[in-house]
Amino acid sequence: MHGTRRRRAARGLTGQFRTPMMTDDDIETFWRDGVVCLRAALPIALVDAMAAPVEAAIAGTQSADLGAMVGGSRGRFVAGVDHWRHQPAMREFACTSPLPELVARLLRSASVFLYEDSVLVKEPGANTPTRWHQDLGYFHVDGEQLCTTWCPLDRVDAASGAMQFVRGSHRSGAVYRPNLFVTTEPIPGTVGDVVPDIERGDYDLVSFALEPGDITVHHARTLHAAGPNHTTDRRRRAISVRYCGDDARVQRRAGAPLKAEQGDLVDGASLGGDVHPQVWPRT
Predict the structure, then answer these.
(1) Which string of DSSP letters, residue by residue, matches 126-156?
(2) Of 5, 4, 280, 6, which is closest to residue 145 (Cα–Cα)?
(3) More confident residue, 14 or 106
(4) pLDDT confidence band for 71 (50 / 70 / 90)
(5) Whole-angstrom Cα distance, residue 250 to residue 259?
(6) Whose CA, among 8, 96, 220, 250, lies 20 to 30 Å from 140?
(7) CB-based contact 154:214 (threshold 8 Å)
(8) H or E segment and range at residue 166
(9) What is the DSSP letter of 34?
(10) Using CA atoms, how far apart are residues 128 and 126, in angstroms rounded to an integer?
(11) Residues 8-52: tens digit of each pLDDT
(12) Is the peptide bond before 281 cis (omega within 30 degrees of 0)?
């Protein structure tokens, strides 16, 4: 599904980028559907500048080829997390780009905290799909003001592995057991509901063809997936940044991956500090 509007974004590279225009309809769509597509939300110059940091990220030890986990896989599906902790360019993208202010407006939150970033690259011919999952099951946090931004560096459509979302699934209140993204089996030791069989059910699905500069923002409870990259000449590179708002509180989830930095987090605590820093308002 293509959006019907294009937004004007700042093109200059001096000073801070301006936050793109956002309408009340965009905010209502996010809360009603659990996902919204924002066209031209990021300046092309900023998106282009992230190409080298993404290459460094997928070559580093924090990334892995998820496709190698699945028998019969072809092509590389490389993913990694928390690059902002080690790469200044990734930190600037997560903390000082237009994203934090944009998220504050969407979440209707006075403050925004960075939960994590990730880099997701499906090379041409990568035949491994991203299985249906919900982000919240991986997070040691709870609340309603939680979201994920998905920012492609390449043109993305159904052929190259566009994201799909179950519209309205964030309103169910369910917390689903996390999987390893390329399998449907839940991670051992996790608790909660098993992700339903979306492929065989009657669900309201929505997908967006995106150009560089376009982004999607989905609620942390929204079920989503992505197909293989069937193209022979197009990469599918994306940076995903996850944010939390005012009502987010620490909640340790049994079996979910725990980062070394999260070892001292206490249930019920607010976010902030070095583990999940405040990125809006800028300090």
Answers:
(1) --PPEEEEEGGGG-SEE-SSEEEEEEESS-B
(2) 280
(3) 106
(4) confident
(5) 13
(6) 96
(7) no
(8) strand 163-166
(9) S
(10) 6
(11) 333 333 245 666 778 999 999 999 999 999 999 999 999 999 999
(12) yes
Q: Which residue has the tokens 């892995």?
A: 64
Asked whether 48 and 93 are in contact (CB, 8 A), the reply is no
* Helix residue ranges per DSSP H, 210-264: none
The pair of structure tokens assigned to 119 is 């880099």
Angle, helices 99-107 vs 88-96, to 10°: value is 40
In angstroms, the CA 166 to CA 146 distance is: 17
Q: Measured between alpha carbons, how far is 203 from 147 in angstroms, rounded to an integer? A: 21
Q: Which residues does 4 contact at the CB level (< 8 Å), separation at least 6? A: none
How far apart CA 145 and CA 247 sit, in angstroms, is: 6
First to last CA, the chain: 38
Cα 223 from Cα 134, distance rounded (Å): 5
Q: Quick one: which H or E segment has residue 239? A: strand 236-244
Pair of tokens at residue 211: 């150009």
